[in-house]
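fyi for ur records
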Amino acid sequence: MIEPVDLLHLGKERVIGVYVVDTPEGPALFDCGPATCFDRLREAVDLREIRHLLLSHIHLDHAGAAGHVVRAHPHIRVHVSEIGAPHVIDPSRLIGSARRLYGDELDRLYGEPLPVPEENVEVIWDTAAGVKSFPAPGHASHHVCYVLDDGTLLAGDATGVRILPGRHVLPHAPPPDIDLEAWERTFDEVLRHQPERLALIHFGVVSGIEQIAEHVERARNYLAVWAKRVHDGMTEDEFVAAARADIEASEGSGAESYFRAAPIEQSYLGLERYWRKKGERSAEAAAST
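which gave:
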């Protein structure tokens, strides 16, 4: 059975995991975690045996160590979406965006990504290293998922954050490119593949077709709750307090792992930006008619 490799982010268990998987073109790593976890990654995984790095998306908690991995092991091919590829090759804009979100905490949390040489980067179309892949926007425009031959769907953040064995599913929605309509389509696409297992980076594996359908429905429903709260005018403090109360009621002491994996305030900022930009586009369209 597939299991996450715990990167022990900031010394904490069950916050960020990655997966070693088999592909038709050799062993692969699904996501690599942040630069701050690179030493732990190479202790836990024999990167000399890895041939491919399958990135779900380019956020630093998932892909920040990619350049470190390739610098140490130049034979590894990095598979990433067409939207994300330029930012893996030149992460300067990515770093700037992350620093606006995290401020002085960025270096402590995730470190600084290194550029991945362009010759190591392969843009994903419908397969990567012989593995079926498909676009999965919503959480991020550059998100993709992969479906292994054994029925495992490598989900990244496309179906939310769930710190197993917890039951709560948190639809992490950080800025800048949350897209609620696209996320709905991604939920549908995940279910269309009828996976037998759902591999989450944050954190663990959901097994069973019925259990996965229930997981996706929770993610969908709670995203709708969060979106409505922001749309209806909740302040950031009110939103964070309500979300924390929801998670604590469900998970008790386990709620802290959720807060570390997906800070609630980021989802407020992402959803607030989504509604604000949508309102601006509607106003512009109305003005042009």
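The mean pLDDT is 94. thats all i got for now
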